[in-house]
Amino acid sequence: MGLSDLSRHTFGITKNTLDLIEISPVTVSDIDSIQEVANSCGLSYWTAADYSNESERDDSIFIKANPNDGPCLGFIVGRLVPGIVREDTRDAEIYNIGVRPGNQNAGIGSRLMGAFLTECRTRGVHTVWLEVRAGNSPAIAFYKKHGFNVVTARRSFYRDPIEDAIVMKSIL
Ligand SMILES: CC(C)(COP(=O)(O)OP(=O)(O)OC[C@H]1O[C@@H](n2cnc3c(N)ncnc32)[C@H](O)[C@@H]1OP(=O)(O)O)[C@@H](O)C(=O)NCCC(=O)NCCS
Question: Residue 59 sits in which domain range?
Answer without folding.
Answer: 3-171
